[in-house]
Design brief:
Elements (H helix, E strand, L loop, with lengths): L5 H28 L4 H4 L12 H11 L2 H32 L5 H10 L9 H9 L3 H10 L1 H7 L14 H5 L6 H11 L4 H9 L4 H12 L1 H16 L3 H6 L3 H4 L2 H7 L15 H34 L1
Helix pairs in contact: 3-17, 4-10, 4-13, 5-10, 13-17, 16-17
């Protein structure tokens, strides 16, 4: 039985209010800065009330680096990566949980260990593979000596697939996910054996069982994972910065935030940064993730709770 204590209730509400203020205050400063002029934002005193230049700054931010196209790029890449992660993670967890094959636990733990290897750690080998997807195959042929044999017969073996400056390069290297595999594995392990036996009695094969039974049951897990992976991909900066040189056509919204701060007086570094325009751009860029969290909050929480049961 939980005892209700008025004093503890007041303390709890006070902590919640303070936490909310700490979370909202930076966003309020960003909004206020986006409504000020360049002179007002560089004034010695701190402005806490909005100004009158909000739409002017939004217009300047939108047109400065073709932000509309970059928002569409980020939206497309984030949705594609999120769906790709869900598909591959669910299939991987399906194989690990429902198929009996030697070493399946070793395979799972090898996947799980990659959680300790963020993208920044494997950025160099990932870039090397993205510059030529068939480079690992060529290395294997070199180790086996097959390249030398082919050269003896004057046979040239050239395979090249460059993912740089492409949507494929932005999407494929980010699809694999140990987090998604772990979440789906935890959910699949809670599937009752009676349901599996009933599916077998109805003549359902593995593919039918996955599509018609597991996929509908996994909707809350899918919603939770989609929200996590969408936010993760939207906020990616290092990988797009490395793989994309044609930023005019393939640049993302987060990359545009850095490009949107050319100096008002001198773009070479001698002027004053347009922080008001930059804050307006930040509001635009953070809007899709915020809307995603707002609309998916119920499914996100439900998905995480159902995974733990």
């Amino acid at each position: 039985m939980i005892e209700r204590n008025p004093t503890l209730d007041w303390i709890t509400h006070l902590v919640l209010i303070l936490g909310s203020l700490l979370a909202i205050l930076p966003l309020w400063f960003v909004f206020v800065a986006s409504t000020l002029s360049i002179q007002e934002i560089n004034a010695p005193h701190l402005n806490l009330l909005p100004g009158e230049h909000f739409f002017e700054n939004l217009t300047a931010a939108w047109g400065r680096t073709n932000l509309g196209l970059k928002l569409l790029n980020s939206l497309f890449v984030s949705i594609a990566v999120a769906f790709g992660k869900i598909l591959f993670a669910s299939l991987t967890a399906f194989a690990i949980v429902f198929f009996r094959f030697p070493g399946r636990q070793i395979v799972f733990w090898m996947i799980f260990i990659t959680l300790m290897l963020p993208l920044e750690v494997r950025i160099v080998p990932t870039y090397a593979v993205a510059s030529n997807v068939f480079q690992p195959l060529k290395s294997i042929l070199d180790i086996l000596g097959l390249t030398y044999v082919l050269n003896l017969f004057n046979i040239k073996f050239e395979l090249s697939w460059n993912l740089l400056n492409s949507y494929t390069g932005l999407i494929l290297p980010l699809i694999a996910t140990a987090t998604g595999t772990f979440l789906f594995r935890q959910f699949y392990m809670n599937i009752p054996d009676e349901l599996i036996d009933a599916a077998k009695m109805d003549g359902a094969g593995p593919i039918r069982f996955y599509i018609e039974i597991l996929w509908p049951l996994s909707q809350t897990t899918i919603a939770a994972l989609f929200t996590i992976m969408f936010l993760y991909t939207w906020n990616q900066y290092l990988w797009p910065l490395l793989i994309i040189t044609d930023r005019q056509h393939f640049g993302t919204a987060v990359m545009a935030l850095r490009e949107i701060i050319p100096l008002s007086g001198d773009s070479t570094g001698g002027g004053t940064p347009d922080w008001n325009v930059a804050m307006a751009a930040a509001l635009i860029v953070m809007s899709p993730p915020i809307l995603m969290v707002v609309f998916m909050q119920k499914f996100f929480i439900k998905g995480l709770v159902s995974i733990d049961k």
